[in-house]
Specification:
By secondary structure, this protein is α+β, with helices and mostly antiparallel strands. Helix content is 27%, strand content 27%. It is built from 3 helices and 7 strands.
């Protein structure tokens, strides 16, 4: 099966891709986590996600911030709301490890790679039911997501002056 990405990189010879489909992690947490690591170097992103999982650093919630508690660790990101989404961090770490392996297979240096593109899309919701008082039944949905990313090798710029 061919995996289609939302767009293609400019220089595909210096790029490695990774993606996951119908992942059972919460969409909103994964979206905010992905936006937090976008543009980071590969090793920096991996270290950052490890720190978040140990609660030494935090994921700032910018878009989906309503209902999220305020945390003092968010002050350095100039926002009020944040969380430590461990499950999303674990999945994104495994995706970064996959992309790092793809980089070594394509003979790219993983130390010079940075996250150029990360996109998180909503997947089809899973339906379950929960039983309430007085014989009522309510929906009990989960919110999985699709994640795609690619890493690009930094170009070395030479000063020709």
């Amino acid at each position: 099966m061919v995996k289609h990405y939302s767009r293609e990189p400019e220089n595909s010879s210096k790029t490695c891709k990774a993606s996951g489909h119908d992942i059972r992690v919460k969409f909103k947490n994964t979206h905010e986590t992905a936006q937090a690591i976008k543009g980071m170097a590969l090793k920096d992103a991996q270290a950052y996600l490890e720190k978040v999982m140990k609660k030494e650093d935090i994921i700032p919630f910018r878009r989906y911030r309503y209902g999220v508690g305020r945390k003092a660790q968010c002050k350095k990101y100039k926002v009020c709301n944040g969380r430590w989404p461990v499950k999303s961090c674990e999945f994104l770490l495994s995706l970064l490890k996959n992309a790092e392996g793809n980089a070594t297979v394509n003979e790219l240096n993983p130390d010079e790679m940075f996250i150029e593109h990360v996109q998180v899309n909503k997947a089809m919701q899973g339906r379950r039911r929960t039983y309430r008082a007085h014989g009522r039944i309510n929906a009990f949905m989960n919110h999985p997501c699709h994640v795609e990313m690619w890493l690009t090798q930094r170009e070395v710029r030479l000063n020709t002056s």
